[in-house]
Amino acid sequence: xxxxxxxxxxxxxxxxxxxxxxxxxxxxxxxxxxxxxxxxxxxxxxxxxxxxxxxxxxxxxxxxxxxxxxxxxxxxxxxxxxxxxxxxxxxxxxxxxxxxxxxxxxxxxxxxxxxxxxxxxxxxxxxxxxxxxxxxxxxxxxxxxxxxxxxxxxxxxxxxxxxxxxxxxxxxxxxxxxxxxxxxxxxxxxxxxxxxxxxxxxxxxxxxxxxxxxxxxxxxxxxxxxxxxxxxxxxxxxxxxxxxxxxxxxxxxxxxxxxxxxxxxxxxxxxxxxxxxxxxxxxxxxxxxxxxxxxxxxxxxxxxxxxxxxxxxxxxxxxxxxxxxxxxxxxxxxxxxxxxxxxxxxxxxxxxxxxxxxxxxxxxxxxxx
Length: 369
Known about the structure:
This protein is α/β, with parallel strands linked by helices and 369 residues long. 37% of the residues lie in helices and 14% in strands.
C-alpha cells in the first residue's frame, strides 16, 4: 500500500471552522462526545442519492476533505500495520475539516435548494469519498462524516491501488486530491481534476452560496495562447490574440465542470432565482481586457457559457481579488497563483496541466494569462 505525503502549504495550523470541535489526531474529541448531536440529526431522514449518470459527481479524497497529517506520519514512520492499528484504535475520534470541507458543505447547500425547487430531480451534486485507505479505516471515516453531518453515501476505498478506473465508473465530473500524480492521471483520462493544499489560514466563505472561480488559459481554455507567450514573449502573445480574436480557443480541462455549474444555475433561473442563485462563478485571469480579453469572452459566448463575473487583471496579483471573492475553490494551472491565493486565505487548487508545468512563471513576467 502506498500513501503519498500530505501536501502542506505554509504551515499546518488547524483551519477555522464553525463545526463542532474535531480531531486531526492530536485532540481528545471523540465520537462519544458528540452523541447528542448524532442522536438529534439521526432523527432526520437523509435524502436519497441520485443515480451517478444523472448527478454531477464530485470525488474528494479523504486527505483533502479531512485533516490526516498525524496519521500520515504514523504510516511513514511506523509502516502500514501500525497505521491500520492506530486508525482502528482512534476510530471514535473524528477528523478535523480539511481544505475541501467548505466546498463540500456548499455543494450540499445547493442540493438542498435544488430539492426544494425540483423534488423529483436527480440533477444534483453527488459526493464520493475516494481514499487509498484499507477498508479497516472506513469506520473512522463514516464516524467523521456523521459527526460533521455530511451527506456522503458513496465510498471508494482502494487499499492502495489507483482510483482512476473507479472514477470513470462513477461518471466523475471533478476529482480533488492531495496527490498530484493521481490528479495528472485523472486529467489524462479526461476527468476534471485538481490538487488541493492545506493553508496556514482560511478566510470565511459564504454558507448560502457556492462560489467557484476559474483561471482562463490551461483551465477553462487550452494552453495554446500560453505556449505563444512562453515561446515568443508578451508582445507576440498580444499580437496573436488580436489576430485570432474571432478564432475560438480550444477547451481546457475544467470547461466541462463550468458547463455543469451553468446547467444547474439555469434550473434556478427557470424558477425566478437568478438574483439569489446559490451558485456563482468567476473568471479570474491575468489577461488584459483590451489586449487579449475579447477572445476569451467570445469563446465562452460561442460555447453557450458564461461566468457571473469576469476579472481581467492585466498581470496584477490575483490574491487580493480572491480575498474579496472568497471562493469555496479557485482553480489555476500555476502554483504561483495558488500560493498567492493561499497567502490571502483563499481556497485554491492547482490544475497540473499545460505548458506552465514545464516553465513556471516568475512574478515579474506573469502577464499573459
